[in-house]
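Re: [ENG-882] Designed sequences occasionally contain unexpected residues at chain ends

Forwarding the minimal case from QA. Structure tokens:
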């Protein structure tokens, strides 16, 4: 089961990644690897996913934002409930 990290922890990790990318002019992967080791062995894959999603959420990269993904999930759930109740069946 995946480990849950607090929003504060994620925010600090993202800040460290951004600082390292800017200061050392290194790639995101190199920064995620270094920060992951500094934070006690967090997978650089996990950190890179967080970093990529944060960049999307801030409009710095193309993709589906967290808010959009949550809305899509909510709408799909509503559609399932609606059709399972027989209301939408023709």
């Amino acid at each position: 089961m995946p480990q849950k990290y607090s929003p504060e922890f994620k925010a600090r990790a993202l800040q460290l990644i951004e600082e390292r990318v800017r200061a050392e002019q290194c790639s995101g992967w190199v920064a995620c690897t270094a920060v992951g080791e500094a934070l006690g062995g967090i997978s650089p894959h996990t950190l890179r996913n967080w970093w990529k999603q944060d960049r999307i959420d801030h409009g710095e990269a193309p993709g589906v934002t967290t808010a959009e993904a949550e809305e899509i999930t909510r709408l799909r759930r509503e559609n399932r409930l609606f059709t399972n109740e027989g209301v939408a069946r023709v």
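QA comment: On inspection the terminal residues look reasonable. The CA atoms of residues 35 and 50 lie 12 Å apart. Proposing we downgrade this to a documentation issue.
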